[in-house]
Write a structure and sequence with these properties.
Order of helices and strands: EEEEHHHHHHHHHHHHHH
Oligomer: single chain
Low-confidence stretches: 1-72
Number of helices: 14
Shape: globular
Structural class: mainly alpha
Largest sheet: 2 strands, antiparallel
Radius of gyration: 22 Å
Distance between the termini: 22 Å
Number of strands: 4
Helix content: 55-70%
């Protein structure tokens, strides 16, 4: 059960989330209501937008908590997740279009895409948490009604009857939420397949991302221990499968399943159902991640290693999986800390909130650019990054102005996915 605040203005003040204000009236840059922070800044609180998964749509990172008999109270968007997702997108753009030094390419290879997958797992857990909070509030309201409603025999319902009614009330939301997560994965896969002809040298990451989201849609309700067990199984299977091979594709499905599962676990560590994370476990996790990352980066420059220990990008074995998850944990933790110190109008935050749109535009423009202008250039890569940051910032500004109903605080791709999920699975998208 998600915690209920003791007053209308109570809130958690962790580094990854700003406190909630029940009386917020300002409109933030993404078109949703802003919540006042203790330092006088405002965080973006999504008001009407639909949740999404790793595609980075506008209100996926909203946490909901029960708020008495009238449903749920929405807390501010976790801007740190937008920052982490934005960094992943920018990293992929640079590796696709830039001309990094050999050492830089060795260091960065595969890490932005893996970070994107890990954040997808985090976001899937957020969607699940939001749906669970809504279902819990609705079940509570229904139980209150049933307590006051006599049975056909004229007597009050017994405790077992009330418990049974509450359990039945939760079954439908659980199945529907899994269906929504699966639908998102399927839609992202289809988008990726549609982009393949335009990819050119770019291996479109959305295909494997959507497929692994679809395959793991049933995992979020499991306890953390079960997720850890599945992560170990996926890592072992990927290492056994890929260690003796040169991969034909850079995104091996089993390894990406491990990244999605790792993201779900990191949600429990850094965010949690009530937005406070796992307390002291967060620092321990980050410390272990720093040590693992140091070892992994050292191994990236070693050539005489057994197949399972390779930490090179796009190998899909134990070494790379551990390094990628470790780097993602560090980036996620730092991004969550930075997220409470920035506003929703920050260009990187804006880009991360519409990552699917930006990724699609990047793929569609890169092939023509690489064919007719420049194949790899740091200067042009920087220009593309600046252009996408400016586009995302401008879109959010427009979404906060007179066109907010048209833009709905979302990127166009995110809005289309949300609407499609609503049509497929029903209810709120």
């Amino acid at each position: 059960m998600v915690k209920t605040p003791t007053s209308r203005n109570s809130a958690t003040t962790r580094g990854d989330q700003a406190p909630t204000s029940a009386n917020n009236a300002e409109t933030a840059a993404d078109g949703s209501a802003s919540a006042e922070r203790v330092d006088g800044e405002s965080q973006n609180a999504s008001a009407n937008n639909a949740e999404t998964a790793a595609d980075g749509s506008a209100s996926a990172e909203r946490t909901e908590i029960s708020a008495g008999s009238n449903g749920t109270q929405k807390r501010p968007r976790i801007l740190g997740l937008d920052i982490a997702r934005g960094l992943a997108i920018l990293g992929m753009i640079y590796l696709h279009l830039g001309h990094p030094l050999w050492q830089t390419k060795v260091i960065l290879s595969g890490l932005p895409a893996a970070l994107f997958a890990v954040i997808a797992g985090v976001t899937m857990m957020l969607i699940w948490t939001n749906a669970t909070a809504r279902a819990a509030a609705q079940a509570h309201n229904a139980a209150q009604v049933q307590i006051q409603t006599p049975t056909h025999a004229g007597t009050e319902r017994t405790a077992p009857e009330r418990a049974s009614a509450g359990a039945n009330a939760n079954k439908a939301p659980t199945a529907q939420t899994i269906a929504k997560l699966a639908a998102r994965g399927a839609l992202i896969t289809l988008i990726g397949l549609a982009l393949l002809p335009a990819g050119g040298e770019i291996q479109v990451v959305l295909v494997v991302l959507g497929a692994t989201m679809l395959a793991t849609a049933w995992v979020p309700p499991l306890p953390t221990g079960a997720k850890v067990a599945l992560l170990l199984i996926a890592t072992a299977a990927a290492t056994w499968r890929y260690a003796p091979l040169e991969l034909p594709l850079p995104y091996p499905h089993l390894a990406w399943g491990a990244y999605i599962l790792a993201g779900m676990i990191l949600f429990d560590v850094y965010v949690g159902k009530d937005g406070t994370g796992a307390g002291g476990v967060t620092k321990i996790t980050t410390a272990i991640a720093c040590l693992a990352a140091a070892v992994g980066f050292y191994l990236r420059f070693q050539t005489d290693l057994p197949g399972w220990a390779r930490a090179t990008g796009h190998t899909g074995v134990l070494g790379e999986i551990v390094l990628s998850i470790a780097v993602a944990a560090i980036v996620l933790h730092l991004s969550l800390i930075v997220g409470r110190r920035v506003k929703a109008t920050n260009p990187l935050v804006a880009l991360g909130s519409m990552a699917l749109t930006v990724y699609i535009l990047h793929v569609l423009s890169a092939l023509w650019w690489q064919t007719h202008v420049s194949l790899h250039s740091d200067l042009w890569a920087a220009a593309f990054i600046a252009a996408f940051l400016a586009f995302a910032w401008a879109w959010k500004k427009l979404a906060a102005g007179p066109a907010r109903k048209l833009f709905a605080g979302q990127g166009p791709a995110e809005r289309c996915v949300a609407q499609a999920v609503r049509l497929i699975a029903g209810g709120r998208a």
